[in-house]
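Onboarding guide, step 5: your first structure request.
Type a short instruction followed by the sequence, for example:

Predict the 3D structure of this protein.
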Amino acid sequence: MVKSFFFLAVIVCFLEACSNSSNTECGATEDCLILEEDKLSSEPDSISNGSDSINEFHEGMILVKGSEKVVIIGTNKKGARESETPELRTVLEYDYFMDSALVKCKDFKSIMAGTKLAQTLKCNDNEPITDITFFDAVLFANKRSSKEKLDSAYDYSKAVYDNEGHCTNLSSFLFRESRKGYRIPTEAEWIKAATSSYKFQFFSGKPMEWSNDFLGQLKDTTIVNFTGAKNANDLGERIVKRYNRSPDSTNVDLYSRGDVYTVTSASHADYIGFRLAIGAIPNAIWLDNKGYASSAPITILANSTDLWDVSKTTDMKMAFLNYQSGNLAYIDYAIGGNTITEINDTVHVFHPDISPDGKKVAFCTGIEGVSSLSNVYVRNLDSIGSNLVKLNVESAAIPRWKVLENGDTAITYVSNPGNNKDNATFKNYSTWQVIFANGKFGKPQKLFDGAYHGGISNGLAVSGARLLRARVHNKDTIWYNNEQACNVSLSKDNSKRTAFLDFGGKTGQTFVGKKYSTHQYILIADSTGNLTHYVQAPTGYTFDHSEWTVGNANDNIVATLANTDGAHKRITLIDLASNTSIDLVEGDELWHPCFWAKPQMKVSLSSSSNASEDTIHSSSSGFILDPDSAGLYYNASGIYPTADRWRYKMELLWGYKDSANIIALGSSRTENGIKPLAFTSPAFAVNFGSSGNSIQGSYLFLEKYLFHHIQNLKVIIFELDIDRWSCCNNSLLNNPYKHYSGYVYDENHNFWKDYYPPNLYNLTYDSPGTPSIAAKYRKNRGQDPISGSSWNYPEVSNDSTWLSSNKSLFYKKIDMLKEIIQISKEKNIFVIGVIFPQNPQYKETGSFGRYGLLRSEAPSLIEEIQAINKIYPNFILFDENKMGDHDYPNELAQGTDHLNANGADKITHRLDSLIQTLDIDWN
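The system replies with structure tokens like these:
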């Protein structure tokens, strides 16, 4: 309560100190400039409680009335996925409509007529539309709202499409729950409809259906009007629902929240469709990434991939003040950028500044423009703000980190941050510097009189809180013709550029060439005070709290955007080179952002790796790589759904190319089921399995990369799950790779078969990706171990008769296998073909496995594969499925066709024992 009262009192003073003192400037006249139209709506509409819903009619939809009925999300069942537990209870008090059936193909094509996707999709008119992304469904919902003259439930600034017309990304995407437009139903709404007496049509899990929610952690609690997770997890996963019914039809599973494969907003599959809902959600409650409920959480609008072009690194952080809570908040983009961490304590926070190494943050308790006593603190930038240290002086404000010429790290600060309009008062304040080392402050040193809190660099110091004061080579002066200015910030490089905000002054209007209102432009002056650049705020907003960024993004400015009511709703990053901006977060009151980007650094994988540690761009390598292409194996286009996983496989390749002597190739069955760390020395294994990969993808990876770069390769563990040979022909390296500059760059250099540039590993390591995948892959050498302990029930996802209708599907794969084995024989490499265990209950069906193949046909095909050994003795078939008669019980499995971490231990130890019997020269 004390903290909140302080913030309320200080905001009144602040607004008085940093506002126009008269009404004669632009903003109070009819001549104010009308800004260019912004693509994003600035404010949501008023909330509707749905009380008039009974009088509405929406074709094809059923009204679901608000009630006190408890809706259960998730389950407490043993063996369920971590994301499906524990049970969360919610009550939906509002009315909403939902489609009685999934959206049909003809309706989708009609609404989306004229788009490339509508022209390329192949589907039957009266069948549910499938094979579309979440973003495709969002665009359909907005389009239908527009046709019926309703508000759009979704905002975005830019749409990105793949070559088939699928929308794979919507920049600055926002769900406006208080608007009454068409939208995808929330998970809670979908479950309530599925468990009600209304006549909704469900399809026994075929197809699955998009939910509006991100996949977030559940909590054992009851929430009224639950709306889901506010931000994505590190994988960016969305929830898909299905009306699962067990084989005996006694149990309906509504707790399932996903597919066996990772599902993101850019995913599309022929078994995922959607239906729409309509109805404003009043008093919506969300869960953040820590499981805390909030009615107004902060929404993240950009991640590290979105920011790559600006920063050229994924190692970025942003700190800011959540004025609503009074806490210091930060985002660590190096671990995904999908989580906002707030440091909860009683210390008041203003003007945070991130240290040069990105590990600490300095801040003060006073605010620019308000004369007061203030304290300066430094703390670690972690979840608890550990190692809080106070500068022991009477008053210190607006700290700024600085690296001195001798290499010491120091903080500059001022004795008072107050209004600088009166010259005598300004000179009574002073500017100081203090060394900060080993977690402690040194002895403060006075630099000069005058509170120059805007920054100090090579003989220049600036200040602004009414006037733009400058100290140039020990001489004090006033720039900007003595007109009002504030939010002054000196660039952190050596360019001596000063950014500031003004009040629509004559000097600024002359430079811009038009009249404008207070804080409508960021103005930039050179080292002499002459204006050189300006940046306009988007329609409906003005700037506040503008600051130069720190580190590897020196041509960028971060600022808050205030709406017409003065609320600081967004933080945006401005790229001066291109005059574009990227919105970073949205909330109720977001203040004083500081954005830090680390320059690319040399790194090593581990002590056991022989990965190069050459400095990036090192001329000693003999080849200078283009950092805008080399190592960039991933982007947010969504062209290939598991491109982020392949990006880390490439990192593993370049990092372990001189260490690995065993590699594993295959789909998610391999990725989950082979444990590289369990092999016995001198074996050194790397798992190159990837979700959704096919035998063709493994073949191309070997042909283009692995055979040429894994110099000590002795054993290839190759997935031979024949049920996947008809349905699953995904291959990043067949065609989609052309959309990722790293692969194209490799291809243009003959995949480095003639010469490997040592710094390629470093560029790959620092390139965009998915940090949660990085953590698992780097720790486990490519394995993604999974939890759970059940085979579930034997799902059959494809036509089991595919072999009868098209035998060539099988023999094309056999030919690929034989070619791999032939090349391996020439290189003295053993190939072990693994048939992974699947649900033993397939013995009770007519299918060999999850993706079909008649059980009656499988034995003879397996015998054909086994017979390859007679021609190529370097080939060994390792059948752990044994037509379902295997010894992998529920405790070793997850899902119908994957081994969990314990199952991976078992099959890997068996493979290791087999390999130890082979005649291999490990040297």
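Each response can be followed by summary notes, for example: Confidence is low (pLDDT under 50) at residues 4-17, 19-51, 601-621.
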